[in-house]
Amino acid sequence: MSSSSISHEQNKLDEIATAEASKHEAKGRRKPFGPPWEPAYWGKWQTIMFALRALGIPEGASILDVGVGVGWTTVFLAEAGFRPAGVDIAPAIIEIARERARRTGVQAEFVVADMDTMALDRQFDAALVFDALHHSTRQAVVVDRIANHLLPGGWVLFGEPSWLHDFSPGARRTTRDLGWVERGVRIRALKRDCAASELGNFRRFYEGTAPYASLQGFAWQLARLVGARVSCAPQMSVWLAAQRS
Predict the structure, then answer these.
(1) Long-range contacts for 50-54 (Cβ within 8 Å, ≥24 apart)?
(2) For residues 132 and 143, is the Cβ–Cβ distance under 8 A?
(3) pTM (two decimals)
(4) Nearest to 14 by CA among 137, 177, 165
(5) 179: closest CA among 31, 6, 3, 16?
(6) Which residues are 63's β-sheet partners?
(7) Closest CA to 70 of 133, 130, 13
(8) Which residues, listed in sequence order, are joined to residue 158 by a DSSP beta bridge?
(9) Peptide bond into 152 cis (omega under 30)
(10) Separation between Cα atoms, residue 19 and residue 22, nearest integer Å
C-alpha cells in the first residue's frame, strides 16, 4: 500500500484532526507535568531510562522516537544526552514538539511521518516506541519499518498497553469519540513480528509500582507487580526490547 493511501485512512485523519483542534491547549505543551497527566508517566520514563542503560545504549547514541505525540519523550532523551529524532503523523503535534525543544534549549529533530510508511533515509543506534504501536492496525508493518531504520546490533524498546487495553472503558471512549485505533499489544505476537523482521535477542523489562499511602494501597501495588511479572497488570505497560541482527 502506498504512503498516500495509508495516510488517508479515516482513523489517521482523525488523529491529525484531533491534534490540530487541540494544538493551543496548554495541557499538551506541558505533558507529562501537571493535570490531567497522571504521575504514572514518571514511572514509565524511569523504566525507559533503566532499559536503555541495561541495553548498553551510550550517551550520544542516535535514537529514533516513534509516534512521539507532543514530543516529551524526545525532549527528555535529548536532555539525557542522546541524539533523538521524533516522528509523528500529525503536523500540529510536531509543531508543539519543535516549540518545546526550542523552549528547553535541546537539540532534537522532529519529522512528520506515518510510522506505517516512514522512510528517513538513515539508520539509528536505537529506537523507542512508547505508547504508539497500539494506535496502528499494521503492527508487523510498523515493526519492519523500525527494523529497517536500525543499525546492525541496534536495539528497539517497545512500551505499550497490554491486552487489558482491549477492555478499557477509556480506550473504548477514545475510539468512539475521536476515531483513534486503541488496542492492546500481545508480547507473543510482537515477538513473532520482530523475528520476521530479523529482530531478536529479546529482553523483557517491568515498570515499578505507583506510590501508595496505606496498607490497602500496598496490597494493590503488590498485586500489580505480581500480575505484571506473570502476565500483565492494569495501567502497567508491557516492555520488550529486541536487537537487530
Answers:
(1) 50/205, 51/157, 51/203, 51/205, 51/239, 51/241, 52/82, 52/126, 52/157, 54/203, 54/205
(2) no
(3) 0.95
(4) 177
(5) 16
(6) 84, 126
(7) 130
(8) 129, 240
(9) no
(10) 5
Give the cell for residue 116: 506505517
Of 103, 100, 91, 155, residue with least CA distance to 126: 155
Q: Which residues does residue 86 pair with via DSSP β-bridges, in sequence order? A: 65, 110
Q: What are 84's strand-pairing partners?
A: 63
Q: Do the beta carbons of residue 156 and residue 62 sit within 8 Å? A: no
Kindly report, residue by residue over 18-42, the tens digit of the pLDDT: 999 999 999 999 999 999 999 999 9
Task: Assign domain 3-244 to its CATH architecture.
Answer: 3-Layer(aba) Sandwich (3.40)
The CA-based dihedral angle spanning residues 50, 132, 103, 84, taken in that order and rounded to the nearest 10 degrees: 60
The pLDDT tens digits of the residues spanning 134-189 come to 999 999 999 999 999 999 999 999 999 999 999 999 999 999 999 999 999 999 99
Burial of 95 (0-12, 13-18, 19+ CB in 10 A): middle
User: How many Å apart are CA 234 and CA 169, to the nearest integer?
Assistant: 12
CA 174 remoteness from chain centre: 17
